[in-house]
Amino acid sequence: MEVSMKEIMDCIVNPVKSQIILSIQKEGECTAKDLLSSLNDIPQATLYRTLNRLVDSGILDIVAENKVRAVTEKVYALNKSFLNVNQSIIEQNDGEAYFKLFTNFIMLLMKEFQNYAEKPSINIAKDVSGFSAVPVYATGEEMLEIGNKFKEIIAPYQTRNTAIKEQNMRILATIITPPNDK
């Protein structure tokens, strides 16, 4: 099922849908029970209602159904076409959709920082938190090369090594701005 741009934008601006989608994207596949334990600020009825809407709209697929006692537990995954939303926006060259996608990206990062900053005891240096911006002079081809090298560097760190207790999941975000004409 092809996902409409309207459905994609709705997911981007809806905080409950965004949280569900990010959790499923992170895990690959999730049950409602998995989501309830990781998204404890979403009421159960809201979660189930939203999951049904995401399946109906084609954002989520039910990839398995497990019989657990007398109940059938559904396993959810993101629809392949939804996973390619960035590519779809690029192909359509849709500036408005691209800006909305970027805005949601920034809002989610801001929420992560807010959650961290509101903790009763933080240690910015010890927690290795930070952000920076660096000017880069490069062609489009060179930017792709930089991106590929960056992917190579972080690939080993994108899955948890259970032997290392100190490893914590962090969000490493990148933003490449369009060329500055000045």
UniProtKB/TrEMBL annotation:
Entry-linked InterPro entries: WH-like_DNA-bd_sf, WH_DNA-bd_sf
**Entry's Gene3D superfamilies?**
6.10.140.2180, Winged helix-like DNA-binding domain superfamily/Winged helix DNA-binding domain (1.10.10.10)
Superkingdom: Bacteria
List the Pfam families: HTH_20
Protein name, please? Answer: Helix-turn-helix domain-containing protein
The beginning of the lineage is: Bacteria, Bacillati, Bacillota, Bacilli, Bacillales
